[in-house]
């Protein structure tokens, strides 16, 4: 069942080639409440593609489908399909700066065409009851004044959109790669804060540069929601404190070991003939980030999870290696502590 009420205080960003259904299933085990987004899916892929680009597990709710497109008829058709499939939200991508997105007349280039986005909002809202939202930048190229940003927001909001997720960087559509566009343009949080101050009636979430729970809390004092992307992917167990700290849900969060056991079972349940354990394991490389054995975990998954004959018991065998390393470290520290106590006793 879809979740009828979406709490937007914390969400995980849509990340192309990263936030697929396996990644989202894994992240949902850690947080019940974080709003998850699909990778961007183009309307052309959904309407004309041979694969099922909208598949997801029911456990993933609350879940939003991010659409790439600018044809209002196609966008409405895909929104209707998304609602029928059970998605909780449909989000329009107005932030991705890659060439293939730009050439398809969607993504960040649409910030220069607010009326096109507004037409999509009207068409989509006419056929669905679930929220239709927009993820955008604070500007593009030379359209970098607050007035340009405000004009885009006003035009789209007047069409009926009341929820915006804003990446607090401008996008350079010429001269910077997508990776550089995530890092080179400076962050401008005050611009997003100003937008919220001038539009208290809108739901405004901020994206870009937020790496810790404390930073998220600081932003939530000003805006309605925080979206994190690469930091969650690199260190997924960061989500373990989100439910209690931001949503007041103090349930027992699975340990890293419990997550490994659950995801190994998930791997064994897959029936797709093209499925490989690496399709899941690649999203879990950061599970032991900052922990003893983290490098061993990453190395084992990378070496034994790929190739022609991947380890079918990949996650559990990797865990065994991590726990063996952790035991050695604990024994070493225990022995060292005992030695220090003995030396103190002799001196006395």
How would you describe what is shown here?
With 348 residues, the chain is of the alpha/beta class. The chain has two domains: 10-247, TIM Barrel; 256-333, Four Helix Bundle (Hemerythrin (Met), subunit A). Helices cover 45% and strands 12% of the residues. It has 15 helices and eight strands. The chain has helices at 21-30, 43-48, 72-85, 99-103, 114-125, 146-158, 178-181, 189-198, 213-220, 230-234, 242-247, 256-269, 278-281, 294-304, 314-347; strands spanning 10-12, 35-42, 63-68, 89-94, 132-137, 163-167, 203-207, 225-228. An eight-stranded parallel barrel has the order 1-2-3-4-5-6-7-8, surrounded by six helices. Helix 5 (114-125) runs parallel beside helix 6. The longest helix has 34 residues, at 314-347. It is globular, with a radius of gyration of 23 Å. The model has no long low-confidence stretch (mean pLDDT 92). Belongs to the Dus family. DusA subfamily. Catalyzes the synthesis of 5,6-dihydrouridine (D), a modified base found in the D-loop of most tRNAs, via the reduction of the C5-C6 double bond in target uridines. Specifically modifies U20 and U20a in tRNAs. InterPro entries: Aldolase_TIM (IPR013785), DUS-like_FMN-bd (IPR035587), DusA (IPR004653), tRNA_hU_synthase_CS (IPR018517). Its cofactor is FMN. The active site is at residue 96.
């Amino acid at each position: 069942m879809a979740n009828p009420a979406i709490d937007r205080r914390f969400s995980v960003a849509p990340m192309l080639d990263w936030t697929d259904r396996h990644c989202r299933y894994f992240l949902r085990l850690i947080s019940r409440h974080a709003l998850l987004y699909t990778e961007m899916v183009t309307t052309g892929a959904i309407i004309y593609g041979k694969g099922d680009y909208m598949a997801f597990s029911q456990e993933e709710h609350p879940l939003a489908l991010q659409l790439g497109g600018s044809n209002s008829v196609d966008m409405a058709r895909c929104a209707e399909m998304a609602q029928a499939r059970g998605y909780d939200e449909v989000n329009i991508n107005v932030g991705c700066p890659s060439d293939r997105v730009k050439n398809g007349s969607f993504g960040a280039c649409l910030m220069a065409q607010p009326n096109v986005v507004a037409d999509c909002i009207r068409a989509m809202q006419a056929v669905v009851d679930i929220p239709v939202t927009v993820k955008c930048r604070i500007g593009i190229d030379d359209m970098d004044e607050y007035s340009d940003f405000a004009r885009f927001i006003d035009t789209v909001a007047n069409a009926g959109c009341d929820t915006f997720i804003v990446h607090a960087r401008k996008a350079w559509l010429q001269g910077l790669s997508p990776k550089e566009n995530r890092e080179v343009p400076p962050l401008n949080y005050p611009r997003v804060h100003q937008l919220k101050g001038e539009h208290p009636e809108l739901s405004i979430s901020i994206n870009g540069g937020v790496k810790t729970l404390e930073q998220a809390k600081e932003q939530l004092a000003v805006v309605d929601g925080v979206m994190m992307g690469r930091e969650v992917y690199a260190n997924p167990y960061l989500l373990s404190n989100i439910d209690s700290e931001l949503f007041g849900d103090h349930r027992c969060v699975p340990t890293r070991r419990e997550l490994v056991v659950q995801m190994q079972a998930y791997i064994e349940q897959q029936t797709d003939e093209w499925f490989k354990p690496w399709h899941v394991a690649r999203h879990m490389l950061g599970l032991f980030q900052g922990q003893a054995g983290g490098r061993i975990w990453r190395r084992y998954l990378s070496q034994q999870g790929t190739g022609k004959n991947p380890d079918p018991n990949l996650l559990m065998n990797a865990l065994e290696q991590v726990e063996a390393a952790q035991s050695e470290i604990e024994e070493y520290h225990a022995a060292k502590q005992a030695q220090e106590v003995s030396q103190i006793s002799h001196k006395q």
